[in-house]
Specification:
Helix Hairpins; about 80% helix; mainly alpha; about 60 residues; single chain
Length: about 60
């Protein structure tokens, strides 16, 4: 998810996406340990998206 796309979301939508991404990251970690993950770069992308969401949520709170 790009920064432009995230800025268009409401705070509630950002929080919902954040929760979804955290669950996905949790599942990808298990898949990585079991050797089932096909694209390890997804973990990196999810972490970046989580960081972007957290940053923009804090900016909207200020």
């Amino acid at each position: 998810m790009k920064k432009k796309e995230i800025k268009k979301l409401t705070k509630q939508q950002m929080l919902e996406n954040l929760t979804k991404y955290k669950k996905d990251l949790f599942n990808f970690r298990f898949q990585k340990v079991n050797g089932q993950i096909k694209s390890p770069s997804k973990i990196k992308d999810l972490k970046k998206n989580i960081a972007r969401l957290k940053t923009l949520i804090e900016v909207k709170n200020a």
